Amino acid sequence: MITAVNQGKAGTAMMGFASILNKEEIEAVVDFVRKEFMMDKKINTKYHTVENGWENHERYASAFPFALNEVPLDRPWDKLTAQQQQGKRLFMAGCVTCHDRARVESEGAVWESRPLSYPRNNYSHKTLPEVDAKSGATPYSVHEIAPVLLSLTEQEKQGEQLFQQNCAFCHSEDGTGKNWIGSFLEPHPRDLTGKSMKSITAQRLSQVIRDGLPGTTMSAWKSVLNESQIQAIVKYVMKAFIQNEEFKNEQPSAANH
Ligand code: HEC
Ligand code: HEC
Fold it and tell me: What percent of the chain has pLDDT over 90?
């Protein structure tokens, strides 16, 4: 078990903790798991505690039987007591997102899966000379391709790497924010290639990276990235995605136009 926690399990979500926990900490957590769950066979440690941000969780007691699988979720409404009905409503509204493996009396029909294909993204074999297998499979993956930029300065190259490592997760590799994660965030990550970005200055760009946008998932990077890294990202974002007047005026070749 210590080896597994140290090195993780290849090919699974179990990561290695060797660089995060020290030897004593790994031994302590393995001892805990062995005693608590394997020897004493405790069902679980409590999750909904004040420390975890769940103040007075007892007030949801009417929904507990559904979270604990004591009452099946598909029991007909008229077979539930008034309190259970209230609990089921609460469970469906506030708990099922995490407690999604509720017990049911009848699993229902088992449907055989079969491959299904249908046109995506206005695909038509009449208008497209080649089959676009990528956007046909998922509408998101086409946005996970970073622009190919020639003649980047050292600073822009560093910015490219930092952007693709830290920002592309939400803004997608092509800067549009139309990747899988971006499509689900509310508000959506800004389309850095879009019209609304054309008026942004390098100064405003640095500031928003530094301080983030409160009330959105755009977080403040000032304690993660240092000032020269932020400047490198600004240069890259300007070159790769925004390409506005301020940027063009800064380019040596623009002087000739
Ligand atoms: C953010 C995810 C999340 C939400 C939302 C959530 N739970 Fe849980 N709950 C958990 C986890 C994680 C556990 C512990 C794992 C386990 O026991 O399987 C847990 C465990 C429990 C337990 C067992 C005792 C305990 O505290 O560990 C009860 C009872 C419970 N939840 C009830 C509820 C009810 C009722 C709601 C809705 C009002 C709710 N939960 C909403 C994640 C959640
Ligand atoms: C966790 C998701 C997430 C990550 C990671 C992220 N952003 Fe954002 N970003 C957002 C969201 C969401 C918005 C849009 C908020 C809005 O439109 O109100 C945004 C907005 C922006 C804007 C527009 C700001 C403005 O005022 O017009 C810029 C520029 C930007 N992000 C750059 C970056 C850069 C550079 C990084 C990496 C250092 C980054 N973002 C990382 C989610 C993210």
Answer: 63
